[in-house]
User: What shape does this take?
Amino acid sequence: MSDSNKVLEEITSSEYKWGFVSNIDSENAPMGLNEDIVRYISSKKNEPEWLLEWRLKAYRHWLTLEEPKWQNVTFPSINYQDIIYYSAPKQKINPKSLDEIDPELRATFEKLGISLDEQKRLTGVAVDAVIDSVSITTTFKDKLSELGIIFCSLSEAVHDHPELVKKYIGSVVPITDNYFAALNSAVFSDGSFCYIPKGVRCPMELSTYFRINAANTGQFERTLIIADDSSYVSYLEGCTAPMRDENQLHAAVVELIAMDHAEIKYSTVQNWYPGDKNGKGGIYNFVTKRGICSGAYSKISWTQVETGSAVTWKYPSCILKGDYSIGEFYSVAVTNNYQQADTGTKMIHLGKHTKSRIVSKGISAGKSQNSYRGLVKVAKRAEGSRNFSQCDSLLMGDQCGAHTFPYIEVDNHLSTVEHEATTSKIGEDQIFYCNQRGIDTEKAVALIVNGYCKEVLNQLPMEFAVEAQKLLAISLEGSVG
Amino acid sequence: MELKDTILQHYREQTSDVIADVRQDALNTFNQIGFPTIKHEEWKYTNLKQSLTKPYAIQPAATLSKAAIQEVLDTLPKGIFLVFVNGIFQPELSDKNLQGAEVNSFAEKVDVVQRYFGKNLPFTDSMQSLNIAFAQQGTFIRIPKNVSIEAPLFCVFLTDTQTENVFVQPSLFILLEDGAQATIAESYHTIGTNTSFTNLFSHILLQKDAYLDAYKIQNDVVSAVQINTTQLVHESKCTSHTTTITLGGGITRNNLSISLQSEHNEAYLNGLYVTQGTMHVDNHTLVDHAMPNCYSNELYKGILNDTSSGVFNGKIWVRKDAQKTNAFQSNKNVLMSKEASVNTKPQLEIFADDVKCSHGATTGQLDEQALYYLRARGIGEESAKKLLVHAFAFDVVDKIKNSVIKEYLIEALEAKL
Assistant: This one.
């Protein structure tokens, strides 16, 4: 094995450092899924009748569906009766102040580098912390409510703002959308809810941190963000899970609604446990994310850095319904060891003069498989629409694979769609150039990878960008070749 | 009786064991998958339903007069004509001087056909399977070792639909032995107003150092439905140029699959589709890089008018061992009218790391600025547009190697533009 191969190997074989388990008492629903479980979850959360009905409808629809098989990933079939659908840390409900939160819980988030303590925070990021199935706390609530911004857990929103939830939940991702969306609609536990009123520019980053702790559980959260006319919000999402030998299922739904002139920026740093070096364990990350630019001149931007999960299978999408609306998708997906990713986006151009931009950077190392799958659809009346897509793949090592499946459907003759993709490995000449200048191979690879991903990382909010760069370096530790 | 049963019954009556061993596999596949529907991923954008519900006469005997055939041949560029009527090769109507090539029916060359035809091919497409299952009346074209044939071998497929709808399944096996060189062209003609349904399959095998220049010239009438499947296998150090030009026809589906099975093979794929009316053209290509140090370059362009629709699905597959592969693919489309549409899916599947692969796809309209530039220089809008469309299309035509065919195609293209 050449030197550079060795370095690659080292870089990509580092351990997952968020894999600890916190010792928190939790209250679990019985294992398995049936109508009673759906009722159990609903009653646990004291939900109104309409929501229970909605859940049951989703559950009944789910029963009629079959798990999709078209994806370019393989995993042993999931036994849906082997999962605990609801798990909540035992603690006082509705803590009045941070002091009332279980110290072990707080310690967990401290350990993850997420401070729930408002005073201690240096930067203004409001956090909604979700552990297993429930939201623990939301910081900076008061400050946000002064501006009329609602940022709370979805369960709270169901009680405090039922009219908004009722109007928008399932409006972008209907319960009949797909297998996992139907499952999520039936058993979703918690998640974040965010409403930005007309003309308000949210002064701080809103953030949700998801943590799976309990064993054998599935996480099914649901996020709903509504940006009213001329508002702006930037939202971050982060996630980790303990190292366990069995696979855990994460099937979330995210819905974004941007009205006239509104802008939503949604960033994800996904770092669920990817399984060990031999591909044992890890999270199945099957998420439905979709935003609708319902108003004119609105904008939705997805940025994702995907480094974790044993299997990632998701397509954050934009429905560009309003005229002159804009959709963006920036993604870095890193797979190592036996990880598999089938990810990409859908841009549905419905309105006139809508624009979309897709930049996807895949990096595969080890024995992993990395796919980009995307759809750009220009409807008949979407005159003057414009799309540009670029999806590049970087291969490290000769055991991995990179795939692109772009679907381009154009029904309008006044639109322009461009797509380009390249696949290559890190050039020996590039590494040699760095070596010559005294940069060792490992650093050279990090440098090249960083440069390769820069276009995407630049889209992340500052604090996250630093985090993501570190994460990239760690995910690829031991894989340079 | 459903079409599927009619076809199966028709062919079962003709018992011949020329290709008995691959037949069962092929038949099983066809029975399993059935006729393609839009639910099959590979057939998502091409709907055969309407064409498949019509009644067809299955490969009826030829009735065309010699004069009618000659009339068609006169329109084609000069070459060695091999005439097929209703799917079956007609030696008495074809040129006798083959300049070194050998043309036989499958039955006459059972041993070679049995050794190669339909072997080691993926049976995943039901139309290809259907053809292979009943290919006993196929035609075997052999270019012997080190023979180089200057004039194009012109396979002319005629379908007589003057009295009824006709379903035909021509099968070809083309073998270029070591160091052989040939130009092989195919063109398709429906005579009559009823529907012709052609399910053609050609299996082409290039042995060491062979050189093939292949053309498909599709300029048929609106009532023609064509499924055209080609499996082109490169054994070693071969070069192939394939050019697919579609200017007419009702529904045209081309499956071109190129397999590079050893080192130092080169494949060039060019395609141009110019569509009018309600035409539908679907080009599926697959380049399978199985071994290292191969090169492939693909360029497909489309100009879509009226309510026509186009599909391009290009797949580059680089297998684990195929290091040092260079593979390029480009698909460009211009939509000329409000009702035209195009669906493209350029795919890369790569399992080796030391490769250079890229693909690009664009869909748009004529460049406003270029149009303005020309008009500013006193060229009228119509002629300016024409000029730009020409420039767009001739990118592909320029790559044509054979000057006789090139001339012919330029003329045919001019007529369409």
Remarks:
- Chain A has one domain: 3-475.
